[in-house]
Structure formats: C-alpha cells, structure tokens
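Encode chain A's predicted structure.
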Amino acid sequence: MAASAVPSSPSGPDDAETFADGRLRQVLGRATVVRGTALGGGFYNSALLLELDDGRRLVLKTAPPADSPALTHERGLLGTEALFHRLAAGAGARVPTVLHHEPAGPGVPSEWLLLSYLDGTTWADARDRLAPADHAVLRRRLGATLARVASVTGSAYGYPRRGPGLSAADWPSAFAAMLRAVLADASRFGVTLPAPAEFLAELPLRFGHRLAEVRRPALVHFDAWEGNIVLGRAPNGVREDSGQVAGTGAWRLSGLIDGERAFFGDPLAELVGLDPLGAAEDDAGLLAGYRSVAPGLAVDRGARIRLALYRVYLALVMRVESVPRSYGGEFAAWLDTWSADRVTEQLAVLDALAN
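Encoded structure for chain A:
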C-alpha cells in the first residue's frame, strides 16, 4: 500500500542535480531543477519533489531496480500509475498530469515517471483539522470522484500490465489469477498464511457465480485511502462539484495520487482499498456521493460476498509484501496480527453469506 506524499527533510542542490540526469533534462527543456525534496511515506517507489527555476513543481517517481524483490503484480507499477492518471483525468477526476513515463531498459536502470504536483495536504495529515461537517462533505465528494474513475472501462479484467498473466476476459478468471499470484508470492518469500493456500486458492471457484455478476472491467484505484487523497482550501466564492459556492477556507478535494495499484474489475473493490481496516459500504455519505454519479451501485448479498473476497486479497497482499519490504518492529508485528485476523474474519463472513 502506498503512503502519504508529504515533503520531508529537504535535500540540497547537489541531490537535485543528481536526479536531473540527461534524460530528465531533455524532458524539462530549458527549465532546470533548483531544489529537490524527498516525499516521504512511500513503501515501494521513491518520490522527489522537484522545484524548477520557472516556478513549476513536479514529482519524479523512481522504481526500485528491476532485480529488487517484489510481488508478482508490482513490476511496472509506474506504467500502471501513468495509465491510471491519464484515464482518470479523461473521466473528470482530479489527478496529477502525466508529463513523462519511461520503463526500465538499456541505459535506464529503473522505471521512472514525471508528474505535476498537486498542491495541498493529504487527508491523513489534515484529519485532525477537519470538522465533522468537513469530513461528511469530503466523503461525499470522494464517492463522486471514485464513481467517475469507475466509469472508465478497460479492454480486459485484471492488472493492465501485460506479461505476468494477471488479466483475463472475465472477472472470475482475472481475480483467481490475482489471488493465485499473491499466494505464490507467499510461498516464494516464505510467508506463513492464516489459512491453507489450497483453500484460499479455491475461493474464486467457490464464489465464481458471484464474481461473474461483474460484467464490465471498471477502472479501480484500489489504494484511495486517506494518505493518497490530497485536500486543499477553496478560495472564497469558488463553485465546487456539488454546485455550492465554497466559503473562505472551505476544504476541497484536490485530487487522487499514487494510482500504481490500479486494475480493471469490480468497482466495489474500491470500497476495500479506500478503507482497508473498515467497511466503507456502511458510509452513507460516501455511497450517496458515488450514486450521485452512478446510481446503479448496489450493496446486496452478492456484493457483500465479493467485498469479503477482496478484503481477503488485500490482507494477503499487505501480509506478503512485508517480507520484500523488510518491514520490522511494531508495524511488522501489528501487520502480521491484523492481516491474520482480517482473513479469518472475512472467511467467516463468506461462510455466513454462503448459507
């Protein structure tokens, strides 16, 4: 899971020049980097805020070297992020503008992506400053934004990058492949699972008829938690998406960032990614905002079964990634306990709904 993109301790001009290599200079043209600041919190790709002499601020994201340990679906994540931002922008969502993407290859040791910078602060960092009314309005607007994202239809289900076999012509097959991949990753990295791998791998078959209720490969961010939502203050008199005129300093949704975990599938999966620890389907304001754009969203028995499946998947991803990320200390211990409890809890939900 990605974390918040918040500037940490600034680096000096020499560090900025290190990142402004020949290829980056070609993209920037006459502009030069005058300052580089590390953006903290990311668990996989690194990010640097570039301040240019023409006043622009950009974000340079760089993937780990191609031979670094990673989960199967994590190769080429910056390409996925570039695709997500382009598609989401076309659907009317506020996201960074993609300025350049370059995959790893001859002369390019690591994949990199150059984006515009969204001014503001993450929802996670602003949380203590939000009044209950602010929170309610923002959750409604977030729901509407995610519905716009989900209006994008892919050509296949699953992860968009070609090669690792994580996409298919139907959602049951694609989700089964996604789940099998993370189970194989668990075996590869020696991660103990909360339930037998064979049992977990059978879940998409057991509930295949419910997964088959998904008839369109919708674009899903799958990591739209508060650390990946940027908020800002609306100037007095600005008309918001709701049609209301914002007062001085009213909080506004500036955009979504870090679309690297995106896939095409069930739009309901977005509710799992945006609230990994809870149950976003119980948030009436969020759903009202979503339904203001996509009225057909239903949370019926089949939907709750699919939500439980996606929660099992996400908990397994978070559990397995702790090894290649080399998590340690209290966070690693918490994640180990939480992910085991979450999988056990959701398996019980599936058993109850199956009867």
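Residues 1-17, 241-248 have pLDDT under 50 and may be disordered.
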